Amino acid sequence: MSAEASPVWHPFTQAAVEPAPVAIARTEGACLVTADGRRILDAISSWWVVTHGHRHPAIEAAIIAAAGRLDQVIFAGFTHQPAEDLARALVGIAPAGLTRVFYSDSGSTAVEVAIKMALGTWHNRGHPGRSRILALEHAYHGDTIGTMSAGARGVFNAAYGPLLFEVGRLPLPGPGVREAAVAIERLESECRGGRVAALLVEPLVLGAGGMLAWPAATLADMAEVCRRHDVLLIADEVMTGFGRTGTLFAVEQAGIAPDILCLAKGLTGGALPLAATLASEEVYQAHLSRDRTKTFFHSSSYTANPIACAAGLANLGVWEAEPVLQRIAALAIRQQAAVGALAGKGPLRAPRAIGTIAAVDVAVPDAGYLASVGLAIRRAALARDVLVRPLGNTIYVMPPYCVTAEEIGSIYGAIEESVAEAMREHAA
Question: pLDDT value at position 267?
Answer without folding.
Answer: 98
